[in-house]
């Protein structure tokens, strides 16, 4: 067995795919950045991300897949599901070995699992576009904290750049410890390290003095449009799962209180 050590990026994974073929590596398993102790008796192959090698794999896949199928690979990668790298590699391996497009062959587990993973990421991306709640800091920066199941920041940045083009904003993924920052011209990736999620007292300290007032206005609006007689908790949770609630202003009445 060969353990493939790569940097965790999509380009790094594509480079790994190229080198698996280049060096004819067999029985591969992927690990991000460091060697896994669960595979003590395996060989290791470290990957240095190479855009030329990555693009050669991409070009090969573009010739074999539809536009939708091609994009699904990236969406599936961002799902971060367990063993998704191995699943994707088996999909690529099958695609390269087949004389026809393999996207419709759902009898193969790798095809079906890639489709499911891509769908999961797409759904999470769509939800984040609706569930991001910005707050204003003293220095006029709008920020939002999210904790999605999938790594969706690369997929939602254009949406927020287009929608909020006239204001500086930062969306921070507290699960993955990085964010995207828009400076009125470009969107860039930023890394921020906290020992735990930013505390409510810390956020209250950096918030604009009128932020709590506007948060309360939003909570009151949310409460006023809610028709108690039509309350359907089961349906509500289906469309707004509880795992998102801690970052939704309307779900935390005393967010800025200790």
UniProtKB/TrEMBL annotation:
InterPro entries: DNA_repair_put (IPR023875), DUF4130 (IPR025404). Pfam families: DUF4130. The lineage of its organism: Bacteria, Pseudomonadati, Bacteroidota, Flavobacteriia, Flavobacteriales. It comes from Flavobacterium tagetis. This is TIGR03915 family putative DNA repair protein. Residues 83-250 form the DUF4130 domain. It comes from the Bacteria.
């Amino acid at each position: 067995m060969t353990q493939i050590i790569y940097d965790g990026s999509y380009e790094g994974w594509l480079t790994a795919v190229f080198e698996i073929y280049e060096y004819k590596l067999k029985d591969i398993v992927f690990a991000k950045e460091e060697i896994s102790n669960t595979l003590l008796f395996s060989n290791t192959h470290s990957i240095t991300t190479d855009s030329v090698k990555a693009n050669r794999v991409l070009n090969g896949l573009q010739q074999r897949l539809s536009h939708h199928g091609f994009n699904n690979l990236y969406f599936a990668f961002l799902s971060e599901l367990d063993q998704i790298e191995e699943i994707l590699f088996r999909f690529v391996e099958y695609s390269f070995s087949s004389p026809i497009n393999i996207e419709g062959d759902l009898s193969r587990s790798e095809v079906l699992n890639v489709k499911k993973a891509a769908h999961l990421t797409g759904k999470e991306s769509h939800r984040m576009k609706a569930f991001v709640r910005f707050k204003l800091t003293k220095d006029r920066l709008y920020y939002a904290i999210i904790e999605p199941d999938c790594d969706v920041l690369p997929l939602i940045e254009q949406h927020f750049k287009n929608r909020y083009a006239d204001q500086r904003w930062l969306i921070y993924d507290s699960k993955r410890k990085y964010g995207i920052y828009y400076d009125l011209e470009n969107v860039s990736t930023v890394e921020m390290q906290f020992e735990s999620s930013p505390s409510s007292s810390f956020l209250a300290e950096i918030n604009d003095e009128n932020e709590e007032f506007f948060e309360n206005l939003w909570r009151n609006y949310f409460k006023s449009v809610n028709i108690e007689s039509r309350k359907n908790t089961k349906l509500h949770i289906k469309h707004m799962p509880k795992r998102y609630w801690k970052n939704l202003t309307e779900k935390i009445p005393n967010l800025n209180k200790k």
